[in-house]
Amino acid sequence: MKTDFNYPNKDLLGPVVFRPDFNNFEKVNLNQAWSLFFTAGQEDKLLGQEIELGRFFTNLLIAIGFTGSLWAIYFNQIM
After folding, report:
1. Contacts of 7 (CB under 8 A, 6+ apart)
2. Quick one: angle between helices 52-78 and 30-38, nearest 10?
């Protein structure tokens, strides 16, 4: 039986953040951060190279937190 799987690098199947060639103390952009979050550290280029999607997720998280805070303040004052 012949397979097409040839993984010579032992670090290939592990999480991206523990690979020796990951990042080298470079800044992680928003897309890389959200890709690592959504894939639990398995892939850092899932969302691509353009940062608009990363900004969208960041602004969405801020908006949800802000709206939740306003909702809590508003409904705590009524009671």
Report:
1. 13
2. 70
